[in-house]
Amino acid sequence: MGVLIEQFPLYVSGFLGTLRLCVFAAIGSLVLGTVIAACRVSPVPPLRALGSAWVTVFRNTPLAVVLFAVAFGLPELGVNGSYFWFGVAGLTFYTSAFVCEAVRSGINSVPPGQAEAARAVGLTFTQSLSLVILPQAFRTVVPPLGSVIIAMIKNSAIAGAFGIGGDLFAVGSTLTSAQGYAAAATLFGVLLGYLVLTIPAGIGLARLEKKLAVAR
Amino acid sequence: MRLNRLAKVAVAAAAVVVAATACGGGGSSQLGGGATSAPPVAEGASFPEGTTMAKLAQAGTLRLGTKFDQPLFGLKGLDGNPQGFDVEIAKIVAAKLGIPADKITYTETPSAVREEVIEQDRVDMVVATYTINDKRKERISFAGPYYVAGQDLMVAADNSAITGPDTLRAANAKVCSVTGSTPSEKIKEYVDPANIVLFDVYSKCADALRTGQVQAVTTDNVILTGLVENSNGAFKLVNNKFTEEPYGIGIKKGDVAFCQFIDQTLKEAEADGTYAAAWNNTLSKVSPDVPPLPAAGACT
User: Fold this and answer.
1) What is the enclosing helix (H) or strand (E) of A97?
2) What does the pLDDT look like over B7-60, one tens digit per residue?
3) Is A185 an 8 Å CB contact of chain B?
4) Chain A residues with CB inside 8 Å of B136's CB?
5) What are the structural domains of chain B?
6) pTM for the complete prediction?
7) Signal peptide location in the record (chain B) (predicted)?
């Protein structure tokens, strides 16, 4: 267990690397996922088709393949950028498909009378969605969205292998193979790092769920 | 009818599983030797009672840990057996123990697990581009070295700005290597951390260099030479070695007798030409001259 103390600064830098990746990807996928969900329930057929296609492609493709396509496909097309942003993009595209489906299930849980009432008082589609339906929908989707985001934090370990380096999981491989520390103790440290991210995320979401709960 | 169809599906699935198991064979394989040379197997070799050599000679098999994805050193081919210089070195040691090449059992040992498999006694020795260093010696012992590589840089063929590690900073170059490798640690002395790009295998680094995502790839020269060879003239080696990487044979910690036996075997192999033959079968493709066998380190 000496590795945890001797290499603490390296663990911290890996933790921060993973945190940075996850914060950007979480914001990105929540925003993008909601937009795609809005497309899927919109009255405009091309938008609905786009939303369905997006979900079908990214929900059914393994994350490693998505990341591979972004990190090696984009440079092939002449788009050069930092691997960090490629990783954020890949993780965002993949997670947004799951966010979209969670949000859409929330939208479907809002009684149709709400949408009809919104239309009856003269709100446009965008207004009724953003002012009436989504605020109610988000309450029901906090638990599934929480699971999606926690899964995303764990998935970030895969993104780390695509040129980003310096994330928690990469720190683990550096310590075991380049510096010869025992794998079990080193990976225990990596596990602790991920738990520090995921457990508070879970607790925070449970609090949020209680706070938003309304008696129907 | 429905049950009938289900039964058919189940039978088909079972057949697929059986076929897959028959072909796959998992991480270890014990098929016939490769197309490469077979050093003469020692007949009736005898060793002092209780030593690792006696135990192995008795068992008649050698459990070897090597890489399955390292061109020229240990690369698993279509016949299921790894081939390369590391494998040839292991065959020389095995032959001295009276074990023919087809009695070697291969286990894949990527960089991260090499100490573990030795400590857990899952292999008898590890020959896997395994750089001898003090940190590793705390957990295992090394025989050899059998080859001294050195860290170098690979750049695009038309790049004249990068001539060595000291020029990387001035060129503001991004450098690619493999997560957890010794070269990836060493290069930190020459480049800012933000400019180091790490992948899990070198082939991805080569791709990143080709598409201009990075300006240089760094690792041991022999590995780079293999990549240059496969690039159809797109890459070149800077040819300015800036480290010494002695490759050793990893064995159980404190097994001095086995270590001395391997060192002696390597020395004899150099004298009788089997070392040169191993080189000519593998690494001569990228480096025609057979290097002298490096002086053995102390056995502890």
Assistant:
1) helix A83-109
2) 555 555 555 444 444 444 333 443 333 445 567 777 766 788 888 888 998 888
3) no
4) 180
5) 3-148+246-280 (3.40.190.10), 151-237 (3.40.190.10)
6) 0.71
7) 1-24
